[in-house]
Amino acid sequence: MKCSAIFFLAAVRRGTDxxxxxxxxxxxxxxxxxxxxxxQNDETAKGNDDPMNDDEEPNFxxxxxxxxxxxxxxxxxxxxxxxxxxxxxxxxxxxxxxxPRVEPDKLEKLQSVINKVLGKFxxxxxxxxxxxxxxxxxxxxxxLEYNNHLNALTAVKSTNNYKIDKSHTFKVNLxxxxxxxxxxxxxxxxxxxxxxxxxxDLHYHLLEPDAYDQFCVLCGxxxxxxxxxxxxxxxxxTLLEERNRWTETYVKWSxxxxxxxxxxxxxxxxxxxxxxxxxxxxxxxxVECIDFSPGERYLVTYTxxxxxxxxxxxxxxxxxxxxxEKRSFFPxxxxxxxxxxxxxxxKYLARMGEDVLSVYETPSFGLLxxxxxxxxxxxxxxxxxxxxxxxxxxxxxKDVPARVTLLEIPNRNEIRxxxxxxxxxxxxxxxxxxxxxCVKVDRFAKRxxxxxxxxxxxxxxxxxxxxxxxxxxxxxxxxKEPIHxxxxxxxxxxxxxxxxxxxxxxxxxxxxxxxxxxALLKRLEKKACNHLFWSPSGQFIVLAGLTTMAGAxxxxxxxxxxxxxxxxxxxxxxxxxxxxxxYVVTAVSSWKTSVDNGYWIWTFQGRILKRVNLxxxxxxxxxxxxxxxxxxxxIKEIKKNLKKYSAQFESKDRMRLTRASKELIEKRxxxxxxxxxxxxxRIDEWNNQKKRRLELRCNIDTxxxxxxxxxxxxxxxxxxxxxxxxVLDDK
Length: 731
Known about the structure:
CATH class of the domain at 90-181: Alpha Beta
Main location: cytoplasm
Largest sheet: 5 strands, antiparallel
Family: Belongs to the eIF-3 subunit B family.
Number of strands: 43
Shape: extended
Distance between the termini: 104 Å
Helix content: 10-25%
Organism: Pogonomyrmex barbatus (red harvester ant)
Strand content: 25-35%
CATH topology of the domain at 90-181: Alpha-Beta Plaits
Subcellular location: Cytoplasm
Keywords: Coiled coil, Cytoplasm, Initiation factor, Protein biosynthesis, Repeat, RNA-binding, WD repeat
Radius of gyration: 36 Å
Structural class: alpha+beta
CATH superfamily of the domain at 90-181: RRM (RNA recognition motif) domain
């Protein structure tokens, strides 16, 4: 196919007719059946054995009776999109229907309204309002020309079905769409039913009897990129899949672990099932960022590049199962990823604009209530992980204080407000269960505004919102030292804060209970850490000193704050817990440093299990698991009766270790046997060469020289080493 693309581009330079001829020939070449390709390979292999065939040209002709049943669009769709076409200069022209009909004296007012609505999408370089000769009124449709095609396309997508008044709703189309509508066939043929194809089991990994988790390893760069899928089995991880050049940049698991996404020049591919077969492909050139919806129904792809052509869509939302494009957007280059943020149930997604918050609903992906929410000065927002509630904050404006607001969707009710004073910045942190919300507030004593804003006398507050209590009370925790990290316990009600002056910082642990203020549980002083990594199952935490802190690690049990292990992994750049909280990986990525790349696997207690050194190691990602199907009561009952099951698990572990020892012994025996066979073979070979050695050495048997003790003379040589003088006491 690469060869086909090269031929096609070369033909384009020679002319359109030549390109069509070569494109047709290329499609014929690519449409050979697998059986014909195999037969051709066999003939080629036979020909390679004959030296007379070296200069023979291969035969690319179709066999007699070959039926071409694949269209060029199916075979070369991605390439044909780039095929140059003739233009008459009307790509930037749009046609607006259902425009109010007005007299000449009101035309200027109509033009003002039209320019206000449609002028914000780009510069309008030309406009034409057709007039009716009989009554002098406009005809109800207009033509507008923009300065480029991209602006015209944006205007069509944004203003089609725009309601200008009670009686008029715009219908907006590109002028070039008329040709598309003219080519619609008069006789409609219903699409043919596609044969059913049994899908592969995308959740097979959840049926693993020993509940082993999988992880993905990416190493190499450029053409040497390699992707490996491992199963974290005992006693050694098992390699399930390895493919070279599976991706061109990096990989990403979907939210529930169903799909593995790989990145390519022409788009993104999703893989899954026992053999990791391709499940979907989404064509968009230059994709650098993707985001799965929490329920894996939708995928957002985004390219920050602006040099891919005027028709290039920058952000596209796709339906994963059908592969259909749901909607596209053209965000500006300064947007912070993720541009869109999903609600927990895939029903809504929202993005922040200048003084507005736009909430879209699925599956239509239209604006909720057909309008954005006006929030002057909005700086950040975040969805609750369990409810359709938005938290956002706005900064101070003169005498109006800063404000944190909880907004209910879809009814847009403000269920809680909190005013804040002397605010420099805010960060929003939701607890995983949605029971609590923490807003970190950076406060200042004085603010200087000359060339740039500067704050002095900084202090920090943590505003804790009790989401499940009546009227949502708010408690405050104040810390006057610099804050380096904050993290909620995923399962539980504790949170941890790293504060103090680097390099010796303190780590404080608080607990929040229903109807009570946050209580300080423990303060660990003089720690070398700057990141917090809670276990997904709660209770256990890793304090890590990444990048500048040489990879210091501390494994802590927060039940009694026992330090289970203090160690380090030099130059650690990443820490990743497995979904069950049993294992944790520390990694040194070549994206951060080129020295000592690789990853180490630890138990949750900090006991090292495996060290893997990999040149050009880039990334390790555990495969996520979907939420458990057990209720909270069932989990509580299992924990209560854990001793019942522990004996069974211990017996299974012993059997596994015994089996592993047996396999190791068998492996060593096979190696020893192979060595003995090799040694015997070499001894026989050496004995068979003895006659030749005697001939070369004048019939002197040098093999036995060292075995004749009578011909050996022993000589003892003594030599002076050193001289020491001791002074004896006369007394």
